[in-house]
Amino acid sequence: EGIYVRNTNTGNVRAAIGKTYMLQEDEELWEKQLPQIVKTLLSSESHTASDKHYAKEWKNAGKDRGDEQTVSETWDATKVVSFQVPHNSAVQLYDYKSKMSRVAFGPDMVMLGPDEQFTQLSLSAGNPKKANMWKAIALWLSPMFTSDIIVVETSDHARLQLDLQYNRHFEIEDYTNQAEASKLFCVPDFVGDLCKAMASRIRGAVSSITFDDFHKNSAKIIEMAVFGTDPETRQVRKRLKFPANNFVVTSVDIKSVEPVDQRTRDSLLKSVTLAIEITTQSQEAAARREAERHEQESQGKLERQRIEDEAAAEKARRGLLSLQAESAAIESTGQAKAEAFSRAEAARIEAEAAVQEAKLKAQAHKIETESELERMNAAREADIKFALEQNKLEIEKAEKMAKIETDKFNQMVAALGKETIQAMASGPQDHQVKMLQSLGLSSTLITDGRTPINLLNTAGGLLGNLSQPQK
Question: CA-CA distances (angstroms) from residue 140 to 33, 52, 88, 137, 350?
Fold first, then answer.
């Protein structure tokens, strides 16, 4: 609770809420002015949450004047105006000073500031709908039904009165978004706009079809007119949304369809009576045909059962004759069959004994062959082992002899010395070089007398050293 306090010096008005307050010397209580209808709605708890309840009371003008007089006598304008927003409903408050509005969603408690006012809802009501019949502050968001009565005319000029009921609700995705929440109150009379839009669509759809077509497919035609069809799937849409205030219509119910003209009503009654008679006659004919069909099926089943019994008896008789013939054949051929069977059994036993003997001989030969093969394998393995050992000894002997020869040659080289061996190897060549140097020869040619020599080229080579200095 709270009170409105006005500063007499500055003229500012504020609300003191939730505490005990003592007025200062320059303050006074301020009376907030509200429309009489708002006071009435706030004073009557049953009328604040739902606008449809107030429509009934609003029609009684005398009761309204009595309520207004009572409210005026008991209303304290200095107290802060508070309102409990019911569950699943919304209330809009407009601040005339800041030119801003806010929406509160229930359940919640709202208190009016000094410059705030409730947004009143004045909606259409009645059947058919009339404007300004419902007065309310809170707006219901949950699904509700709106009924309406409209008159349509078919293409063959048959006037019909339709009693329709729409299931509708408000769709809010983000309750914290004030811009989206304020859309709820953008349309002043959403009920009247809904009924007008639906009536226009339905009238346009019905005006292009005949009475008989509408009478047979009224529900489908009205749903297609209200919701429209999806251009991609060609199916009737499931809902209709008004983006201006997020108002959604989910279904339409046809409560009644009545002709307006008496002649049309009589024609409809006659057609319905005729349709009932035709339906009754068709049902009787169908029942008669069904009985005849059952009778024919029963006769067919009886005839088929008789044929099946005769076939079974003939089959049993044929089996008996076959058994009798077989018995006589057994009696006539029993002895011969027994002797033949005994001879065949003896031959079989002898053949099995011969086969068994051959198997045993083959097994014995296999054992002997395997034993000989094992002996030969053992002998070959022994020879191979002996040859390997002998070769190994020969290799070891050769390696040791080679090592002895190598050591002997190394010891001889070490005893003579590297200089001695080099002098022995180059001795004859050095002796020849020294002898040629003592004779004063610059070059010489030594041959064995058997190998031919090109003396021209050789002489050119020998004389080449003498001709170069003359140049």
Answer: 26, 10, 6, 10, 109
